[in-house]
Write a structure and sequence with these properties.
Radius of gyration: 33 Å
Order of helices and strands: EEHEEEEEHHEEHHHEEHHEEHEE
Number of strands: 15
Distance between the termini: 108 Å
Largest sheet: 5 strands, mixed
Oligomer: single chain
Strand content: 5-15%
Number of domains: 2
Structural class: alpha+beta
Strand order of the largest sheet: 4-5-3-2-10
Helix content: 25-40%
Shape: elongated
Number of helices: 9
Length: 417
């Protein structure tokens, strides 16, 4: 059976650390999960290696646009405990973006968002890595025709869809459990993006030293050539992803390629980001936005009311969370509220023969504080003629306030107003 060149040439792990065989297997598993994404864009990686730098926050490094990618597999405070596979894959997707983009700017985050979306789609459709299909059964054997690979991929995707239907589970991960704080879930997701971005050593002064350290301590394993059956399965899943993208974007769909790695997400215009920081995370999907909190009105304040606006909420440019208009910063990522655009107010057209209402017809409709309006009401009440405070019931002698016309004791009506 014909073979093709591997997308990742070599794996490198630290042979002198505990559980070294598991580290090598983890590197291979991470590579198998992202290979369809790499094959669709024509990306290749020379060496995929683990590293355990003394800097506790570092998670990944891309050296020379894919010549070497380093991933932290173990927790910084315990080299025997491995980081969850999904977090390592997320770091791998981040470092793959550095093959195309250097700085952590808007195009970089757009591409990272697209890679994350495609990875989640692969998991949802049952892809578990090269050479495996849904149940983890090794394919092997004779060459699989492309139509048979597509049939098996569709069958696995349909089986996965039926198993997860109604479970509330989000593609490839755990869904929001009942009673869980959705705002905390959004904040944790935004924090995860920030952590991975800040833990990237690509393009820093420390990157060369890290590469030299891995060359000294690493044990290299040459990757096996990819089987044609593996390529057929990958292409079948890529076809399924492209079909879903076409349905999602419609006429705006743009296929991913080496020239346009971000696909449709790169073609759709994005709102501008604040230029104060280059480590901002990509936007969170709109479907995960929580309902905004109702604004709190202080009736005791003597400050003048803010000018009226057509909007009672504002959207964060960083995590797209909808915040109430009274919030000066985002409730999820603490980003400062952007300056709202100014738009002139157009008065409604007046009917023929009618005089348009003036601004001072009713003093209570003017924009004044609640305390000023209360003073106006009290002044108007004081100007009215004062009468008796109450009256005595002629039947039972019960005293009643003037506003009551009937006695609360016997029900008799008062004799005079």
């Amino acid at each position: 059976m014909l073979e093709i060149d591997p997308l990742i040439a070599e794996y490198e792990h630290d042979k002198f650390r505990p559980r070294e065989a598991e580290a090598l297997q983890t590197l291979r598993k991470v590579a198998s999960l992202v290979k369809p994404i790499m094959r669709q864009r024509g990306w290749k990686v020379g060496i995929l290696t683990e590293f355990w730098p003394p800097e506790k926050n570092l998670l990944g490094l891309n050296w020379n646009k894919g010549q070497k990618i380093c991933l932290r597999l173990r927790y910084p405070y315990d080299e025997r405990q491995f980081i969850p596979l999904e977090e390592v894959v997320d770091t791998m997707l981040h470092e793959l973006c550095h093959i195309v983009h250097g700085p952590h700017d808007e195009p970089f985050h757009t591409l990272w968002n697209q890679l994350r979306t495609e990875h989640e789609q692969l998991l949802r459709k049952g892809y578990t890595g090269e050479g495996f299909l849904s149940e983890g059964r090794k394919l092997g054997g004779a060459r699989i025709p492309m139509h048979e690979a597509r049939r098996q991929a569709r069958a696995a995707a349909e089986k996965r869809r039926l198993l997860s239907a109604g479970s509330g589970q989000k593609l490839g991960g755990t869904g929001v459990r009942r009673g869980e704080n959705i705002r905390k879930v959004i904040a944790d997701a935004a924090q995860r993006r920030i952590t991975v971005t800040q833990g990237c050593a690509s393009g820093t002064d420390r990157s060369r030293g890290i590469v030299e350290e891995t060359n000294q301590n690493g044990f290299r394993t040459k990757a096996e050539n990819d089987d044609e059956n593996d390529e057929a399965i990958m292409l079948a899943y890529i076809d399924l992803i492209e079909e879903e993208e076409r349905e999602k974007y419609g006429d705006a769909y743009v296929p991913t390629s080496s020239d346009n790695p971000a696909g449709s997400q790169g073609a759709i215009p994005r709102p501008p980001r604040p230029s104060s920081s280059s480590n901002n995370p990509p936007p969170i999907p709109t479907s995960t936005k929580p309902a905004p909190k109702p604004p709190v009105v202080d009736l005791t304040s003597t400050a003048p009311s803010p000018p009226s606006s057509d909007y009672d909420s504002w959207t964060c440019n960083i995590c797209t969370l909808v915040n109430p208009s009274t919030y000066l910063c985002c409730d999820a990522c603490n980003t400062e509220r952007p300056t709202p655009p100014s738009s002139p107010k157009i008065p409604p057209p007046s009917r023929q023969g009618q005089t348009p209402p003036t601004k001072n017809n009713n003093p209570l409709t003017n924009k004044k504080s609640a305390l000023d309006n209360l003073k106006i009401i009290e002044k108007a009440a004081a100007s009215k003629p004062k009468g008796p405070m109450g009256w005595l019931c002629h039947n039972c002698g019960n005293w009643m306030e003037s506003e009551w016309w009937t006695c609360a004791g016997c029900g008799s009506m008062k004799l005079s107003s």
